[in-house]
Each structure stands twice: as structure tokens, then as C-alpha cells.
Design a protein that fits this description.
Chains A, B: GO terms for molecular function: glucuronosyltransferase activity. The structure is a homodimer. Helix content of chain A is about 45%, strand content about 10%. The first copy, chain A, has 18 helices and 13 strands. In chain A, the strands form two sheets. A seven-stranded mixed beta sheet of chain A has the order 4-3-2-1-5-6-7, with helices on both faces. In chain A, strands 10-9-8-11-12-13 form a six-stranded parallel beta sheet, sandwiched between helices. The longest helix of chain A is centred in the last third of the chain and has 39 residues. At the A-B interface, helix 6, helix 16 and helix 18 of A face helix 6, helix 16 and helix 18 of B.
Chain lengths: ~500, ~500
């Protein structure tokens, strides 16, 4: 799924292995952070890595320090188009969305998604650099997906054939948990149904593109379903337990690593916090500035807590900034979260940041902004490791202070964060090693067909056995009909013979 | 499930770990072979292992060489009762079953199962040594199951909550594959439904026993569902890919190991086979003798092939035994299968033997006898690694010769066996290590609740969202009803006003 919020990046891998060649389809934003670590490990293990990047890419710029080769290709959209689109999406998500009703949000989202889709299709238009699954098909090489989720798990369900009973598997982005009331289960069901309908409409242009390209009826979903391995960037520390398939591998937190020492002046500031410790605060790489009243609200709240605060912020210094708070243009977030003085993490709820907090066992205060962030934080809240604000615009200083006091002073939050950390670390294999293992597996074995369920070759009514039920029901009805007819016949005969007998008498 | 053919053995594990105490519920037959290896590894890692054995146990006899302590407990059934039951079951399965119709088989099987159940319940009757899940509940310790399957996956589906769409997940023992025709899907559906009904009836005595024991309504299934980890003794080399759950771990083949050198005289016999190589032949530990005509049929077939044959057989020497065939009371099966001269394996299709063949990449000729063997061999046939005889009684010498010639001379069988072997070996962790990891995990973490799906807390109609559908359907009907009523009202009004207008005019 290449719709915004669906967070898919693609890896096309080809053998023969020992030292293989890995072809990588472009990705944007924080997904690149994750992918890069996997690719660097592959290079360390002797593979060649080539990344296909459209000219319009914003994040995947070639840097001299990078050890893999970037292969650029021209597309009809420009980087400016891409940036404009991203700005429009961010503005809509953070500042407009809560003033609209559900239908308006859906309409606006569809409009934005259509725009993104046009840009995505333009990336397929070059005769050499087509879409990643087309590349895999054309080169006859195995295909590996790596992503966090698709909206309401539509791609995983419809194309990957993963089972997801709406009664206990909340749709991604629904903010629901696995424990749902009757009303919540109705909401989840409607969410699934509406997103399925949305995707069927939204994927139509891709279906047409693919059909035209291959010269035979080919759907977007069918091509996605050919992937050998789906590397999902969560695990059961973050995700609610749910059914899955042998070719779905949960490698969440693969970018996490032990904390490194802090820069000297930062370490001094952290140490100056004494027993109270520190609070780490970042709203992620995409939100660098905020309206003055918002930053003042936040700064005034932070000024009220006894902890020292390290705040990653690119905007103007707020008037209400307390003596305990320092603003940094950039912070070594993972190293700070792994510092023994860290008591809490104020986060927008991006998956990468949440995973660093889970890795180091730090409780969170969430200020969700857009995309999957409210949903991510709903997971952390349900697992007892976070307090979550409703909205950055409606949050009052006291809410933030109360939230911070709760996660710092109520031991249950720290205990739950540590429990998630234990779950994260106590697994048979590190997530990065597992991701690399399965990429190398498809290189060694030319795919992983033995992990692909037969469900891919069934129609929806076959999958749900509707044809079988229809047949059994028909048989049952015919049997009952014949039975009743025969009963009637014998009863009639019985009555008739007794009547004729009476007559004769 | 403690019904014969369901192959369940139970492990009750309790912490605190580093060096923990492991309490093991008894098991019989070839299951003990698997379990023992896991237990020995646990002892090697510093844990204490105590095995609870009823006096009536046939296989789990204390031996001096064993490093774990057996704790015996008295039951009202004797070892002789147990042996009689087993003999009756074997006789029924191998020699009676094919002369009966399906209903007769089901009735007879139900009678045998009831007898086994009575014996099982008698094991629970002692006030100290109750059933394994009761022990876990009473001691408040984590519970680990390890087994191969339950009939039609009933226990895994109904109690473990594993999803199993009948459209592509063949019921265990059905002899079906994941690729089913319309007719086969009907058969699979009926198999699921009949076994569900069978289990609901057959589990009633356990439900009653559990309810009485706990003094509150408690079902057998509910108690099984409390297991932290289900160690399933298959993997995707043997099993068809299917949906599963985070607390289901597939550890098939954990008993396999590299081949050790053969005894000197055996090695000389094997080497004497030259380029033709050898065939290894065993019908497992439970069938030691067979009728003279059967052994003569087999021996005359084996005499016709150019390979040397090593046959594990405890009965009288057949008259037709060829010069190329040697009979042994016992063979080092794993070492023989791993020998470079081995060309084929004639097997009854027990899981342990099949896994040894997969481990070493040896194609098979199957002569299924009873229990899960026909189903196991159907898997190997579907994966192209075996030729399977219908039945030991109807097999003609030429069938066996043809089967052996096919798997030895048609390279596809060897290729497929080697492919399964690659799948078996090329996994992130060895199955024995994985089994031990998860047992130690529940000891370290006092369970694995984070892997247990919420489905356990839903009713069947909630799980399938039937209440949600009923509600949505009601809303739809009401809305449509009101809509049509309003339409009718306005149309009537419209007509009426136009009529009255006409009248006035």
C-alpha cells in the first residue's frame, strides 16, 4: 500500500546468495531509519545493496558516507510537489482534522490519498524502474516487504491473507485495543468494512496500471500477495496478540541499540538533576516548530516539575521556559532514553521513539499529532506504560503536569514499561538478526513458498466456505422436503385407506 | 486432549528460574522419545526435572540411567488394563477398520475413546496427583503443552483458539492437503463439524470432573486454554502453511541429530551395497510382528530390488527373504537414515521416523498402519517426497517394488526430500533450542500472558461477530422500513392532494 499512513517500503532481493545482490525500493521518513539499519547489516555481511530513488525523494538523499549505491530515476513529480503534499497532509492532520466530521475527514483523506497515488503511479511510469513488485516479477526474484501496518490492516488482510477477526483484532489506526465492548466491536467492524471499500476504490488506478503493464487482468493486491516474506515492524511488546501467518515475521524495534555515552555538557546537565532525574521530550523529526501559544503552554507545564527536561525543538524559545528545561535542536534520543537518570519520555508516539522507550523500559507521556501516533499511544496506554493527552491544542499545562507526575511517581507505569522491555529483549532472536535471516533465507532458497498459505488461491466465498455451506444447506432442504412429502403421502394413504374402509363398512 | 490419536503430553513448569523446577505429566509411546530429549536438555542447563508417572504406565519406566526423578502414583487401572486397551486399539486400527463402514468406525472409536477416558480420569482421582492443568492451577505455575496434534485440530481450535479455515487447513487425520477440490472441502467441513460434536460429547465427563474438583462450572477446554505455550511437534517442512497464534511454537524434529557411525558388521553390510545403496525399513516400535503372508509378501518384494535392505523386524524369518535383505531386532534408525548410502526409507509413517527422514533428506515409501500415519504420509506424498501404499493387507509385492523404484530412480523424490531437509535446517533456531527457550521463558517470566489472544474471553458468537452483524442488520432493516413508510406517506399525500385538487376543480 503506498497510501500515506500505510507505511510500506519494499525490498526486492535476489540471489544466488552467499554474497547476493539486494535491490531496494525507495521509502520516506522514519521508515528509512529502520530500513537503513537492515541494509547496513546486509552490507556488513558481504551483500551488495542498490537503492532505487526517485528524483522527488525528500529523505533518501545520497550521502558520501553511505556504503550502498543509490540509483536515481526521473519522475514527473518534483521534490517540491512531494514537500507540498507532505505539508498539506501534516497541516490537515494536526490542525484541521478535529474541526471536521467523520465524513469530511474521509473525503479530505481520500483527496490527499488520490494525490499521493498519482505521484506513486508516476514513479512506476519509467519503462525501467517500475513499481517494486513489477520489478520483482520482471527479474523473477523473491520479494520482501517491510512495513509497520496498513490502515485497518487492509493490505495484510486482503492481500497478505492474514486472518483478523474484528472481534479481538483492532484495525490499525482505530485506537481500539484487543479488549472491546459491544459498541467498540461495532465500530471496529464498520472501520474494517469502510476501509475495505475505500481500498477497493483507491486501488483501482493501480489495478488498471498493472493490468495494462502485464497485458492480462492483474490486481494490485494479487501482486502484493506474491511477497515471500512480510517483515512487520512490531512485536508482542507493542502489538496485541493476534493470529498471523508463517511468512509474517515480527521484527519491531530492530533499530534499537544500547545507549552510548552522552556529549559532555549534556551529561553534566543530566547529572545535575540529582535523584529527581530527567524527562526526555521530542515530537519527532517531522514537527520542528509549533504555534507560540502551544510552546508556551508546554514550557509552563515543564517548569512545574522537579525533573530536568531535555527538549528537542527547532522553534523560537518560549517565554515561559523554566530553569529546569533546556532546548536542543537535536538530541541523541536513544542514548538519553537509555540513561539511568531518565524517568519519563514525552513523545508524539512515532513507532521508532516508542520502541526506543520500550527497549530501555521508560514510561511515556503521549501527545499524539497525526497518522498512526494516536493508535500507537493507545497501545502503550492499554499496556499501562503511558498516559496520553487528547490533543496538542486542547491540552492544558495541568494535564501535562499530572501526566508526568503519574508516570514518574506511580510505580505501575515504570513496572509495565520494564515488563514490555523484558518481553522485547527476552526473545529467541534479536529483531535485526531475524530480519536479516529471512532476507538472506529468500536469497539462499530463491523465495519462501513453503510459508505461503493456499488461501491466496481461493476466492472470498471459497475462503469462507460459503459454497460449501450453500451446498450443505441445499442438501438439507431437499432431504427435509422429500421427508415431509413422504410423510404426507403415507399419512394421506393411511387416512384414505381408513376412509375407504369406513365407506365399505 | 487425552483421547488416543490426539497425542498430548503435558509439561508443567514452575519458577523462579535460573535453576528452576520442572514438573512433567506422564506421556506414552513415541511421545516420550521426544519429551525425554527436551527434559535431558533442561537438566543439562541446570534445572530439576520430576516426572509424574501412574503405576499403569507402559513406557515411562524408571531406569537407572535416567537423570530425572520419577514420582509414581497409584491409579485404579493396572498396566495390564493399559496393555489390553492398546492391543485392542491396534488390532482394531490395523485389521478391523477397513471392513467397517464410517458409522461403525465412529461408534467403535467412541467406545475405545470412552475406555481410555475412564482410565485417564482414574489418573486424576488421586487427591494429590490430579490432571496436569489442575496441578498447574493449584500450584499457580505456568503450563506448557507439547504434542503433535489433536484429531481435526479440535483441541487447538476449540481450546487454544487457533484459527483454522476449513477451506485450506485440512483437519489432522483427514488425509487431505491444503489444496482441496470442492468435494474435499465439503468432506473437510463435515470432518470438522463431526469432530467438534464428538469432542463436545466426549469431553463431558472431564467437564464434570473439573467442575466437581473446583466447585465452580469449569470446562476441560477452558482449562486447556490457560496453557502459556503450545509446543507443536511439526514445522513447515511437514505441515502445510496455516494461520497460527503467538503462543504456538512449531518445534517439529527436535529429536533429530546428525548420524553417528554404525556398528562394524552393519557398516560392512551397508558398504557391500556398492553404488546401489541401501533401503532402511521399519514399521515402528509398536508393530513388532505381522501375519506370515504379509511378511512373505514384503520379503518377496524386497528380494527384487538391487539395493541391500536393513529391516527392523521381531517376527519369524519370512520364507521368501532375499539374499539382499537382513532382519534386525533393532536398528540405529537415525544413523542409518543419515548414512550416505541410504537411498530410501520404508516407513509406517510415524512422525518421529518421518522427521528423521526429512532431517537427512531421504525419500520414503509409506505403508501406513493406524492413527496419524496415513495422514502423515499424505503430507509427504503431497510434498513429493514419498510414494504411499494403500494398506498393508492389500499391497502386492509389485506395488512395493514399483514404489521403491520410483523414489530411488525418479530424481524428483530425492530433490523434494532434500528441499524439505533444507527447510528443516534453514531456520532461525534449532527446534530443540526453541522448545527449551520457551519453557525457560515461562519460568523466567512466570508465564507468557502477552502471547495469549483475547479470543479466549469471547463467546463463539462474539468471536464470529454474530451479535454485531445482528445489530447492524436490525438497524438496516429499521432504516429501510422507516424510509419506505415515509416514501409511501409522501406519495399518498401527493396523490391525495392532487386528487382533492382535481375534485375541487
Amino acid at each position: 500500500m503506498r497510501l500515506v499512513g500505510c507505511f510500506l517500503s519494499l525490498l526486492t532481493v535476489f540471489g544466488p546468495a552467499e554474497c547476493g545482490n539486494v535491490l531496494v525500493w525507495y521509502t520516506e521518513g522514519s521508515h528509512w531509519i529502520n530500513l537503513k539499519i537492515v541494509l547496513e547489516t546486509l552490507i556488513d555481511r558481504g551483500h551488495n545493496v542498490t537503492v532505487l530513488v526517485p528524483d522527488a525523494a525528500l529523505f533518501m538523499k545520497a550521502k558520501e558516507s553511505d556504503r550502498f549505491s543509490f540509483q536515481h530515476f526521473s519522475v514527473s513529480t518534483s521534490a517540491q510537489d512531494m514537500q507540498d503534499f507532505l505539508d498539506a497532509l501534516l497541516h490537515f492532520s494536526v490542525y484541521e482534522m478535529d474541526q471536521l466530521n467523520l465524513l469530511q475527514i474521509q473525503m479530505k483523506f481520500y483527496k490527499l490519498a488520490s494525490k499521493h497515488q498519482d505521484m506513486s503511479i508516476s514513479h512506476c511510469d519509467d519503462p525501467i524502474y517500475a513499481c517494486s513488485d513489477i520489478v520483482a516479477e520482471e527479474l523473477n526474484v523473491p520479494l520482501v516487504f517491510t512495513f509497520r501496518f496498513s490502515l485497518a490492516h487492509t493490505a495484510e488482510r486482503m492481500c497478505g491473507q492474514i486472518p483478523a477477526p474484528p472481534s479481538f483484532v483492532p484495525g490499525a489506526m482505530s485506537k481500539l485495543t484487543d479488549k472491546m465492548s459491544f459498541t467498540e466491536r461495532i465500530i471496529n467492524m464498520l472501520f474494517y468494512l469502510s476501509q475495505d471499500a475505500f481500498c477497493i476504490i483507491a486501488w483501482k488506478p493501480f489495478d488498471n496500471y498493472y493490468t495494462e503493464y502485464f497485458g492480462r487482468p492483474t490486481s494490485y493486491c494479487e501482486m502484493m500477495g506474491k511477497a515471500d516474506i512480510w517483515l512487520i515492524r512490531t512485536y508482542w511488546d507493542f502489538e496485541f496478540p493476534r493470529p498471523f501467518l508463517p511468512n509474517f515475521k515480527y521484527v519491531g524495534g530492530l533499530h534499537c541499540s544500547p545507549a552510548k555515552p552522552l556529549p559532555k555538557d549534556m551529561e553534566e546537565f543530566v547529572q545535575s538533576s540529582g535523584d529527581d532525574g530527567i524527562v526526555v521530550f521530542s515530537l519527532g523529526s517531522m514537527i520542528d516548530k509549533m504555534p507560540k501559544e502551544t510552546s508556551n503552554m508546554i514550557a509552563s507545564a515543564l517548569a512545574q516539575i522537579p525533573q530536568k527536561v531535555l527538549w528537542r525543538y527547532g522553534g523560537e524559545k518560549p517565554d515561559t521556559l523554566g530553569a529546569n528545561t533546556r532546548i536542543y535542536k537535536w538530541i541523541p534520543q536513544n542514548d538519553l532514553l537509555g540513561h539511568p537518570k531518565t524517568r519519563a519520555f514525552i513523545t508524539h508516539g512515532g513507532t521508532n521513539g516508542i520502541y526506543e522507550a520500550i527497549y530501555h523500559g521508560v514510561p511515556m507521556v503521549g501527545i499524539p499529532l497525526f497518522g498512526d501516533q494516536p493508535d500507537n499511544l493507545a497501545h502503550m496506554k492499554a499496556k499501562g506504560a503511558a498516559v496520553v493527552m487528547d490533543n496538542i491544542k486542547t491540552t492544558q499545562p495541568q494535564d501535562l503536569v499530572d501526566g508526568l507526575n503519574a508516570v514518574i511517581n506511580d510505580p505501575s507505569y515504570k513496572e509495565n514499561a520494564m515488563r514490555l522491555s523484558r518481553i522485547h529483549h527476552d526473545r529467541p532472536m534479536k529483531p535485526l538478526d531475524e530480519a536479516v535471516f529471512w532476507i538472506e533465507f529468500v536469497m539462499r532458497n530463491k523465495g519462501a513458498k513453503h510459508l505461503r498459505v493456499e488461501a491466496h488461491n481461493l476466492t472470498w466465498y471459497q475462503y469462507h466456505c460459503l459454497d460449501v455451506f450453500a451446498f450443505l444447506l441445499t442438501v438439507l432442504i431437499v432431504v427435509l422436503y422429500v421427508f415431509f412429502k413422504m410423510c404426507k403421502f403415507f399419512i394421506m394413504r393411511c387416512c384414505f385407506s381408513s376412509k375407504s374402509k369406513t365407506k365399505k363398512e
